[in-house]
Amino acid sequence: MGVGADNKTESTSSKFTLQQLEEKEEVELGNAEAMRPAKDDHQSAEPRETWGRRLEFVLASVGYAVGLGNVWRFPYLCYRSGGGAFLIPYLIMLFLCGIPLLFMEFTVGQYTRLGPVHSLAKICPLFKGVGLATVVISYVLCTYYNVLMTWALYYLLHSFSPSLPWQSCNNTWNAVGNCSTGFPGNATHLKSASQQFFDHKVLEMTTGIEHAGGIRWELFGLLVLAWAIVYFCIFKGVKSTGKVVYFTATFPYFILFALLVNNVQLPGARDGILFFLMPNWSKLLEVQVWVNAAAQIFNSIGISFGSMISMASYNKFNNNILRDTYIVSLANSATSIVAGFVIFSAIGYMAHIHNLPVDDIATDGKFVFLFSVISVSAAVILFDLLYVYMYTVQFAMVEVAVTFIMDGFGKKVLQVFKRKELIVLAVCSVGFLLGIPHITRGGIYVFQLMDHYTAVVSLMFLAFFEVLAITLIFGVRRLSIMLENMLGKKPNLFFRVCWQFLSPMLVLGILISSIVQYTPARYGKSYTYPLWAEVVGWFISLVSIIWIPLGALHELWTTEGSLLQRLKKSITPTIDLESVSEKPSGESIALFAAA
């Protein structure tokens, strides 16, 4: 239970030491609660839950970080960015942004024991809207992320047929005249069989967003099932989620390694793996490759989504988050690289059987990229892998919304709903309703529009303002004191330099590059959205971003004094950093070192 729970020995002195540590931890947890103002209407009537064991937090965090992006988006970006050339900026961004910023979010969540909204409001009242923005973007993402899970379930059910239906052009949904069972390459009049299965069978897609075309009732039923599974896995809070992640965070690795062993033995696999590992050095001169690498780190680890802050807020006060940071971030990247070997060995095999160069294989869009190579693997097993990965991500994103409600309005909401389980049901029900437009026949256009303006435009704005609020305004010195209070040791020079200089500059550079290289949303190679849809897309983006200036204006308006005095008060944290631990004990330092 917590850090140090596994350090028990049979000696009397060790038992006495453990008892002292537990007593000290209880005192520190009590002091941590004392950080909050005496009159705090934002807290729920119930005491805050904690993870049953430290391992549950690690598994939940790894499960959230490791998801569909590792086995789908990462290989796709590698393929489009020069193979091994993408790994260089990816690893640089991991160590200069990913690890330091994950450590920062874990620190904020564990120290304040609050979700992103209220923790950031205490750290920098002027940017309290950043926390609310992270909740909004997480919830918006989870409403259409479950649509991906619906598609995966649809593919899973069709994987039990004797032959995979997306391999053949001899089906009722195929347009035989322009269907290719191989890879169409640069022939614009041809579509692969896997693309036609997705367009004409799964989606029954219309010609544009202006033609909704009615609901796909098969997908509607699967969306209900997808949300029901999410609800029953998280309705008891971290206590139930903590038990589920023992399976969802570990089972996929058995499947992934089984696929790796199978695929590397296929003819032509070597060519695909060499494409993955050997860099095309000219690609490193393209700014977009570096932007894609940074975006992959932020999307995959989950920085600025609020989920990591929420999950860390359920930790015990002295939990060793530095060790957890390394485990989560390195496990995430290692999984991406292993998935790269799995996918690229399959691509090499497909190139071999079709007698094509490796770089001419995956010509379809990213939604069908993975499906093109599934035929060489055990399809049922692979979709099981995708489904479990997606659920662990979905748990965390829904938990962000639930944490916000319980932290901000817990007492009032419980008076209406009586039980937390009903609050979770309401959150899942609203998410289901918001997902219905995505499973109409024109829903893919809605999905692509939201994905473009939420996952690309909004995320980097939120990341910049979160880093600005925590590392530059709240300050590295205060962040170091928080860590010293919890772990008995300040962060090393590497983290302090990253927080103070490197991470903010890189995030700002990525934000500027994203703005300069902005292009309107498109679907496929030819469909461009009408003007009204672009306006809707920007509105979707503003749904999360708008809370940042609104929160700042609200703070300045409600604070007394002159404008200068209001600004000064608005950037002053309300956390008493000295109330938790005036001086770290020797036991805390020993605990940190032993971990």
Q: How many discrete domains?
A: 1
Mean of residue pLDDT? 80
What's the story with the biggest beta sheet?
2 strands, parallel
User: How does the helix and strand content classify structurally?
Assistant: mainly alpha
Strand content: under 5%
Order of helices and strands: HHHHHHEEHHHHHHHHHHHHHEEHHHH
List the uncertain runs.
1-45, 579-595
Morphology: globular
CATH architecture descriptor name: Up-down Bundle
Percent range of helical residues: 55-70%
Number of strands: 4
- CATH topology: the name is Amino acid/polyamine transporter I
The CATH superfamily is Amino acid/polyamine transporter I
Q: What Rg, in angstroms, do the CA atoms define? A: 25 Å
Strand order of the largest sheet: 1-2
Termini distance? 14 Å
**The CATH C-level class name:** Mainly Alpha
**Count of helical stretches:** 23
Binding site for Na(+): 63, 65-66, 70, 300, 332
Biased composition (Basic and acidic residues): 36-47
Subcellular location: Membrane
GO molecular function, one term: metal ion binding
Write the layout of secondary structure elements.
Elements: H1 12-34, H2 54-65, H3 68-80, H4 84-112, H5 116-123, H6 128-158, E1 179-180, E2 191-192, H7 193-202, H8 217-234, H9 238-248, H10 251-263, H11 269-277, H12 287-301, H13 307-312, H14 321-354, H15 366-369, H16 379-417, H17 420-435, H18 443-487, H19 493-516, E3 522-523, E4 527-528, H20 531-545, H21 547-558, H22 563-570, H23 586-594
Parallel strand pairs: 1-2
Antiparallel strand pairs: 3-4
